[in-house]
Design goal:
By secondary structure, this protein is an alpha/beta fold. Strands 15-12-14-13-17-18-16 form a 7-stranded antiparallel sheet, sandwiched between helices. Strands 5-6-10-8-9 form a 5-stranded antiparallel sheet. Strands 1-2-4-3 form a 4-stranded mixed sheet, covered by helices on one side. The chain is globular and about 90 Å long.
């Protein structure tokens, strides 16, 4: 790192927490990747918590002429979120929002995820206009900065068209709030020259009739190539011009600190249908006709796209049959399909639209169809076809290649010919696996193919292909080279080809007006290097079959509990790939050793290994599986200890209870404050070897006893108290001091359910503690031991089994082979308890934590249903997908739990004193970091229920 960066760091350390000034080589390498196929490793990463810090950094970098790049979620595909200088990230503090005018507008900070904005607006039956495919991951800052669109928003509801106002920070550190009259007035004084320049530029553009007409013509289509030149023809007020230029500017004109959107209606009445046509020409004729109706979405899928998913479960028979045949001549290689969606304000209007659109589509003679349906199951099945397309290509690619998704737009009336020409180019360059699909109403096509960048031959193939694509799209069809993915580095060499010398000169002038010194995201949108699209390419070396299919899209990151502490799943895969490459090449032993040492903590020790990442991954990568595999690399003595503890499990649990009793006794003597001080010091002195004590630490649970039956049972259940529940009682100052096993049996008795427990209970464990630490054989042994006991106790699977802790239930369902019906508390209560008790929901609000294992089992809805039956107000906190306690990591790596739950305390209402979940260990961390007591849902069910009198 050169001297200017050292000087910058010393200046920033006076105002910014040193923990958020990152120079660690492993972390800078990890942040050197985004969803694109480029890599730039930043010299410095800054995680900024507020607007003052952003202004400070931009001003300081401006004064020192140090380039900066802003990143939101890092899901952009064109290389616009990468830097080899200063990369600015935002902390979780940038998630504030305000709903305005009864939902007609919404004010959002840039750290809000797009889907979360829509959740906020859902009660008003509104949503933001942009609907990118990455909406569950991408953030408002990126959505606005890239002018992202999507399947339904077209050109009418993107950020440009729905912008009401914004707050921006310019290159010199000046802050402008375009919705604040005082801010605007001050800016007109301080930046008169800038506004005069924008006024002159807009007027000159309007006066140049051919250029103005070209701009208007090009923005009939989706277009994110270059700057938003339509702002110069659409607006005269320089403030309007300025804020609309920021849309799609990709961080090259300044920082977007907040956005106010005009929202759009989120229609409740929807119908979806799938229509197959004989060939692409007939398909596109239907698209042209549909473009003149009010349909919400039309997704085109070419023949190769349909064939790529033909063997997937649940596909309609007419798609499956496309690829049937013993030779290529017998297969249908011409058919294409349209997925069409209609929205309406009421059922009557929907029926009318369905009838009209169906009649229109039938004019083009579809060969097969799933007619319009309002059934949610059919809706999900049809959209699953569309969503499977991208993963289908990713799943068949060779190790070491990357998946590239290009994004162009053609005039709708020329769409069929354009698809044919694209297919010719793909065939010419031997992209045989490539598929074409897209948002047909906007003429927007995506083509997906796989590409390696490890040899000059491969790089040249890609470069020549892109030259031909650019000529085809921009020149021959006068289309858009980037419809919705942004220009980035990927399309920068072709901006002038698309816009011509006059349009390109306008963009250069815009950049000069906003960024005279060129510090803002240099190389993006405008780049003098005509080979920037094949420079700084990211190789994807093989590392392990468990992660080799990872495309580094970042969709996994919002659900990862370590995302703000160490590494995300995407970053773990990135770093492990580099470690594997260096292990093979041995080109830099010192760097390899450094990466391996850092990865031990950043990659392995702080991974909760919950597998939630796989739930979001388009190619089903579970990075937790890789981490558990790496944890198997134990020393012989560690394996001996694991086996010994398994063989003497009853003794280990007794020792655990004794330890909890001792800790509780010392707590009683010392008091909470002194106990916390002493244990923190002890942990520090031990180098983290001594687990962290907190006031939420439980007392010993005592011996589990079977309560006497009242003789009125109508059903029987096997109850397996988890080892966590058998060991851990309540916290010292709990509202209800009864251990969980007692409360569970009380609830079951109220519901008229007789309880059976497995024999030799103290020896039994589901195996999860061993599995999570990589002791696979020991885990399998414990699971098999428990399975045999449950099989016997359940009368060979006749009786249901209740496990009082979700992770244990989830592990058992996954690992056991016999047909045993295993339930965690919420689903058991919903099916077997609630129908047989009377519940009076309490008025006091409750917090609900949905554990990661419950999410993976699809139980979130059931958990909310049960909780709302028991309490009039239920709060499910935002931005917490997993608590990060991860078995015992809340004790051994408490910073993971603290980081994952950092948003929790501020979301607890003042009048709320209780929280509920279904995992005893999770509840310890939740109690510590929320300020209220969390406990099993069974406590709440017992509290609000009475035995039903027949």
């Amino acid at each position: 790192m050169s001297d200017p960066y050292h000087i910058l760091i010393s200046k920033l350390r006076q105002s910014i927490d040193d923990k958020r000034i990152i120079t660690d080589p492993t972390l800078t390498f990890a942040y050197g990747t985004d969803a694109s196929f480029y890599r730039l490793v930043p010299k410095l990463i800054l995680q900024l918590a507020n607007l003052d810090e952003v202004v400070l950094v931009i001003k300081t970098c401006y004064d020192m002429a140090i380039p900066v790049t802003f990143r939101a979620a890092g899901t952009s595909l064109s290389g616009q979120a990468l830097s080899d200088s200063v990369l600015i990230m935002l902390t979780s503090d940038w998630r504030e929002h305000k709903v305005l005018d009864n939902g007609k507008q919404i004010w959002l900070q840039p750290g809000i995820i797009g889907a979360d904005a829509n959740k906020i607006l859902a009660p008003y039956q509104r949503k933001i206009g942009p609907d990118p495919a990455s909406i569950n991951t991408c953030k408002i800052g990126g959505i606005a900065a890239n002018n992202s669109s999507g399947m339904c928003c077209g050109t009418a509801q993107n950020s440009y068209q729905t912008l009401a106002g914004m707050t921006v920070v310019l290159a010199d550190g000046t802050v402008l709030n375009t919705l604040d009259s005082y801010s605007v007035a001050q800016f007109k004084i301080s930046h008169k020259e800038m506004l005069d320049d924008l006024t002159k530029l807009a007027q000159a553009c309007k006066d140049n009739i051919p250029l103005a007409d070209k701009i208007r013509h090009k923005y009939r289509l989706k277009n994110t190539t270059g700057y938003s030149l339509n702002s110069l023809t659409d607006y005269s007020d320089p403030i309007d011009v300025l804020q609309h230029l920021f849309i799609g500017s990709e961080g090259t004109l300044g920082f977007i600190a907040d956005v106010t959107y005009n929202t759009v209606i989120d229609h409740s009445f929807k119908a979806t249908g799938l229509y197959l046509f004989a060939d692409i020409e007939q398909t596109c004729l239907a698209v042209s006709a549909l473009a003149n109706t009010s349909v919400a979405a039309v997704e085109l899928m070419d023949n190769r796209a349909l064939n790529s998913v033909a063997d997937k479960p649940g596909m309609p028979s007419f798609i499956t049959q496309l690829s049937q045949g013993t030779c290529s001549a017998e297969k249908n290689t011409e058919a294409a399909a349209l997925l069409v969606e209609i929205h309406a304000e009421n059922e009557t209007a929907l029926k009318q639209q369905v009838a009209e659109v169906s009649a229109l589509i039938n004019q083009f003679t579809p060969t097969d169809a799933i007619e319009f349906s309002t059934d949610t199951k059919i809706y999900n099945q049809l959209w699953a076809i569309r969503k499977e397309l991208f993963p289908a290509v990713g799943a068949v690619r060779e190790a070491g290649t990357t998946v590239i998704i290009e994004d162009v737009a053609f005039p709708i009336e020329q769409l069929a010919a354009a698809v044919r020409d694209l297919e010719i180019l793909l065939k010419k360059y031997h992209y045989d696996e490539a598929i074409i699909f897209g948002h047909a109403l906007a003429g927007n096509l995506h083509f997906v193919f796989t590409q390696a960048f490890e040899t000059e031959t491969e790089i040249n193939r890609y470069s020549n292909f892109m030259d031909d694509v650019a000529q085809l799209v921009a020149v021959e069809y006068q289309g858009s080279l980037k419809a919705e993915h942004g220009t980035g580095r990927n399309m920068a060499p072709y901006v002038e080809l698309e816009w011509g010398s006059e349009g390109y000169a306008l963009m250069q002038e815009i950049k000069r007006i906003f960024d005279k010194t060129g510090i803002l995201n240099p190389g993006v949108i405008l780049n003098d290097n005509k080979n920037s699209h094949i420079t700084d390419l990211k190789i994807m070396p093989a590392a392990d079959p468990l992660i080799d299919k990872c495309i580094e899209c970042g969709f996994c990151e919002p659900v990862c509990p370590s995302r703000e502490l160490s590494l995300t799943p995407r970053q773990r895969n990135t770093v492990y790939r580099e470690i594997s490459r260096l292990q093979r090449s041995q080109e830099d032993p010192a760097r390899l050793a450094e990466l391996e040492k850092s990865f031990k903590y950043l990659g392995i020790d702080t991974c909760a290994a919950t597998g939630l990442c796989a739930e979001r991954c388009p190619v089903d990568i579970n990075t937790g599986d890789l981490i558990r595999k790496l944890r198997q690399q134990h020393s012989p003595i560690a394996n001996v200890i694991a086996r010994w503890s398994s063989d003497h499990f009853a003794g280990v649990t007794s020792a655990t209870q004794a330890g909890l009793s001792v800790a509780n006794g010392i707590h009683t003597v010392l008091g909470t404050k002194a106990m916390r001080t002493v244990t923190k010091a002890t942990r520090k002195l031990s180098g983290g070897a001594v687990p962290l004590w907190t006031p939420s630490m439980p007392k010993a649970a005592g011996k589990v006893t079977l309560l006497a039956s009242d003789g009125l049972a109508h059903k029987k259940v096997v109850y397996f108290p988890s080892c966590a529940a058998r060991n851990m009682g309540t916290a010292k100052n709990a509202m209800d001091n009864r251990p969980l096993a007692e409360v569970t049996q009380t609830v079951l008795q109220k519901a008229g359910i007789e309880v059976v427990m497995p024999s030799k209970l103290s020896e039994k464990c589901c195996g999860m503690p061993y599995k999570s630490k990589g002791f696979v054989d020991t885990a399998l042994s414990k699971s098999a031991q428990l399975e045999a006991a449950l099989w016997e106790a359940s009368e060979q699977g006749k009786l249901p089994v209740l496990m009082d802790t979700s992770p244990c239930a989830s592990t058992s369902i996954e690992m056991m082979t016999k047909d045993i019906a295993i339930y965690e508390p919420f689903r058991f209560v919903a099916e077997f308890v609630m129908p047989h008790v009377d519940i009076t929901p309490q008025a006091e609000p409750v917090m609900l934590h949905i554990t990661c294992t419950s999410r993976k089992q699809g139980l979130a809805g059931v958990m909310e249903q049960v909780s709302r039956a028991c309490a009039q107000q239920v709060i499910i906190p935002e931005d917490i997908q997993c608590c990060g306690f991860a078995g015992d990591k809340g004790f051994t790596t408490p910073e993971l739990n603290a980081s994952a739950l950092s948003p929790l305390a501020r979301q607890v209402p003042r009048n709320c004193s209780e929280g509920y979940s279904n995992s005893r260990t999770c509840e310890i961390g939740l109690s510590e970091h929320s300020g209220i007591e969390y406990r099993s849902i069974l406590y709440l069910v017992d509290k609000v229920s009475e035995k039903r009198v027949s």
